[in-house]
Amino acid sequence: MADLTKLTASGLAGKIASGEATAVEVTEAHLARIDAVDEKVHAFLHVDREGALAQARAVDDKRARGEKLGPLAGVPLALKDIFTTKGVPTTVGSKILEGWIPPYDATLVTRLKAADVVILGKTNMDEFAMGSSTENSAFGPTGNPWDLTRIPGGSGGGSSASLASFQAPLAIGTDTGGSIRQPAAVTGTVGVKPTYGGVSRYGMVAFSSSLDQGGPCARTVLDAALLHEAIAGHDPLDSTSIDAPVPPVVEAARNGSVRGMRVGVVKEFAGEGYQAGVMQRFNESVELLRELGAEVVELSCPSFDKALAAYYLIAPSECSSNLARFDGLRYGLRTGDDGSRSAEDVTALTRAAGFGPEVKRRIMLGTYALSSGYYDAYYGSAQKVRTLISRDFQRAFEQVDVLVSPTTPTTAFPIGERVDDPMAMYLADLCTIPSNLAGNAAMSLPCGLAPEDGLPVGLQIVAPAMADDRLYKVGAAVEAAFIDKWGHPLLEEAPSL
Ligand code: GLN
């Protein structure tokens, strides 16, 4: 039988539904791949071997009973360790939750299980999803399967690395400022940040509640769409969840086309700091869009220049409030509780021992920005900039159907290069952050390799809120054209581990 780990999710689901392969065989093949390569990659923090095989057996039993299987039944998935999983450890990449076993499933997990998706385990991430390289994980970095000395992006580097190393055909990420799209770009995979409120945040450990959004990661646009449909939709347990039908993303992915569409190129997403090979691939992609029948319009979003500054006030402010619950008293780590200390001292000792440097930096920044006397100057101003950014998008979407840009200014950088330079690290999300601030939908998909280093480059597509289907329509057309022209970078030049 062909190597089951090299197939797409839709291909695997087809084989399982037709009986050509069992879900148990598919799961075992991926577990064997994890055994073979994850020591080098370190995509997983926890592999749930028993749980995965039990889920797979249930799918095979269902088929044997003649029950109809869903479009992803039996397909393995790697889950970012930010979602609570009943009975399975959830760390958020932090020591502060080490050893905690959640008593409930996140809504997204409940939906994956209902769709008969097989959850292989939990993936590595920057602590509390704060970072762009997965180096801020308390459990050590993840390597980029294209070059293990380089970062796989962050914060969801484990999820994207699991795809690029063929340990899983599907993964879940979360995107507060780019953490689905930036790892997708630097690993040659597909990642989608759905419209804010499109996928439930219930059971997703909060970083910055007004920005956080879970979403699909895959190796193809269609696979991402199938996963998107499985996890999206209204959830009464999340008050910010949108109560409206899920945009028809699978239908769009099956009918890729850009003919007659207006595609905007944002002038502000270029210039200093952008790697030459990234711009070259991006410009070729724009040319390709023209060849495919799109009308390309150059436009300006003047407030985007301030997006990074606004984000790094809003996200830390919200995190300083959200992370107050990790007090060493209720759950997770507790340090210094020897009977002689006050609860306050135990909380302080626990937080000092449990949080890493980047998380502490953000809590301090956020607490400062929210303090009386500074609130208007910092948090208040950042919120005003946020409004201006939303207006820029609004104006842009009056002229075009989607926007395109590079996903990241550079390809994967070496592990260690930016870890002591937070500003350099923050720049990795220059192009992704505006969409989080405005709450609209965005995708990254591979657009070839940069000539100077042979590493993957990502093309970002941005659509208005609740027009997530446009991402898939354009993405599928572009993906097919790329494969025609240059082959699939990941499937044909699979990184050798
Ligand atoms: N890199 C950004 C940050 O560090 C975004 C992270 C994310 O999207 N979770 O905050």
Automatic annotation (TrEMBL):
Protein's recorded name: Glutamyl-tRNA(Gln) amidotransferase subunit A
Protein role: Allows the formation of correctly charged Gln-tRNA(Gln) through the transamidation of misacylated Glu-tRNA(Gln) in organisms which lack glutaminyl-tRNA synthetase. The reaction takes place in the presence of glutamine and ATP through an activated gamma-phospho-Glu-tRNA(Gln).
Assembly mode: Heterotrimer of A, B and C subunits.
PROSITE patterns (UniProt xref): AMIDASES
Domain Amidase intervals: 25-471
UniProt enzyme class: ligase
Stored Pfam families: Amidase
